[in-house]
Write a structure and sequence with these properties.
single chain, about 250 residues
Length: about 250
Amino acid sequence: MLTAGVDLAAERAGTAVAVVRWSAASARVEDVILPAGDDAVLAAVRAAGKTGVDCPLGWPDAFVRYVTAHQDGAAETASGDKAWRRGLAWRHTDEIVRATVPPIVPLSVAADKIGHAALRCAHLQSRLAAEGRPVDRSGAGPVVEVYPAASLRIWGLPWNGYKGTAQLAARIELVDQLRAAAPWLDLGAFADRCVRSDHVLDAVVAALTARAAACGLTAGPAPDQLGAARREGWIALPTVALDGLMPSPG
């Protein structure tokens, strides 16, 4: 089984792809691409059984409705206060993450710079759809939305403070702890790249989360949440420890 992880940025320079091959007793990082253009991302999705994408797959329903009404000159605002803005800025899945994995708060795809990456993600989704591979944004398909910080937090690993060129020591510690928690994971020749680039490291974590999703080991939307998840996207949160990604011996 192959899983892929994509740390998707607005531009190829900040986008990394990691491919992990799974066997009965081990997992091996088979390839890493940084920088990764659109064709490299799409090739990984085509090759993998499941791809975890670290980027919102859609926008909040309430935001879309309000902007559409505003464009038509028919938007009404009850108060315009912080609570009202929050209701437009975050998706249902973002609020689930906020409540489930504190103190993590996902970036708002409607009101933050991550919206630029989401526009690129929307373009990639349209290309996949044109190939006959439409993306189910709820995660019930070959692509699933992931959030590496949340996965790391759930797995008891350092989840913040490792981003950026100045945080080399923090990434060394995180990679060491990841290897200790998952001795079956072979980073191989790409261990140093995980240390040198938080984009590569996040792509590897995204590929691990994709494995959890592929095995039915993530929290999916409830029936009454499914419609919104298919429009807005749904962040897959692992429901097992890192060791749970490998089959039990015997």
